[in-house]
Design a protein that fits this description.
The chain has 267 residues and is of the alpha/beta class. It folds into two domains: 109 residues, HprK N-terminal domain-like (Udp-n-acetylmuramoylalanyl-d-glutamate--2,6- Diaminopimelate Ligase, Chain: A, domain 1); 135 residues, Histidine kinase-like ATPase, C-terminal domain (Heat Shock Protein 90, 2-Layer Sandwich). Helices cover 35% and strands 26% of the residues. The chain is built from ten helices and twelve strands. The longest helix has 21 residues. The protein is globular, with a radius of gyration of 19 Å.
């Protein structure tokens, strides 16, 4: 465990947005420019180190339940990152050091930290709960990419569902949303919640998936260089979804579109 303030001091970082208390602690530091890897392997209650100074890096940190983001090599996001961080209680910082040196500095500082007791909480779900809501996603709209899944996460947190379950739903929905933005024309996202099950369906209009089995393999990607520059397209999207869902199905027709259905067991 390490206080965020100590990370800031170790990196001599400047604050971009600090809506949360810098005396809060984090358990891990994750360094990556590939946002699908962050969603796949990053652990909650972490700080993200990245050279990807975009809103997608901040949204990815939010989906993965990170406390905040440190942009390396003096980078600062110029899009809507600060407002998103403020609205969703994330800390943003910028440091002049590169990724390697940042990891070394944090590791050196961490050896002086004392472990803190872990705080756990429990949540109960109303037996009579039933919720149904829909969202629309436009393809190639990278400015608003991630907003639908952010809203899904917010709704589930307000209901009082277990935070680990909410994290899995958020990551899966975000990956599905980014696939729509990168590869489809538009899509409808349907969120249904019962006391036993959460269902998220993403039905898109687009070119479809020629080979679903191939698309499910880690590392397979048809993303453009522009998409890769934003930290996506590493071929982890559908595998991430499979990893985080209790059950998933894909029905895709070339030239028409894809229907992705994701199920998450509440009990």
């Amino acid at each position: 465990m390490m206080e965020i303030r100590r990370i800031k001091d170790a990196l001599e970082a400047t604050l971009i947005e600090a809506n949360e208390n810098l005396d809060e602690t984090v358990e891990h530091v994750y360094a990556s420019d590939l946002m699908s890897d962050v969603l796949a392997f990053g652990k909650p209650n972490s700080i993200l180190l990245t050279g990807l100074a975009t809103q997608q890096a901040v949204i990815s940190a939010h989906m993965a339940e990170f406390k905040g983001v440190v942009f390396i090599r003096g980078k600062r996001p110029k899009d809507g990152s600060e407002r998103f961080a403020r609205d969703h209680h994330l800390i943003l910082m910028s440091t002049q050091v590169d990724m390697y040196d940042a990891c070394l500095k944090i590791d050196a500082a961490m050896h002086h930290d004392q472990p803190s007791p872990e705080v756990t909480s429990s949540h109960e779900i109303n037996d009579g709960l039933l919720l149904c809501q829909e969202f629309l996603i436009e393809g190639n709209d990278f400015t608003n990419a991630g907003m639908a899944s952010t809203e899904v996460k917010s709704i589930l947190k307000k209901i009082g569902l277990d935070h680990k379950l909410v994290r899995r739903v958020a990551i899966s929905t975000y990956e599905g949303e980014m696939n729509v933005v990168m590869h489809a024309i538009r899509a409808r996202v349907s969120l249904k919640v019962t006391p036993q099950l959460i269902e998220v369906m993403i039905a898109d209009e687009g070119k479809g998936i020629p080979d679903v089995n191939m698309a499910m393999q880690e590392g397979y990607s048809t993303a453009t260089e522009e998409m890769r520059a934003m930290g996506f397209g590493s071929g982890m999207g559908l595998p991430n979804i499979k990893r985080n869902t209790d059950n998933m199905s894909i029905d895709s027709k070339v030239g028409k579109g894809t229907v992705l259905i994701m199920h998450f067991n509440v009990t």
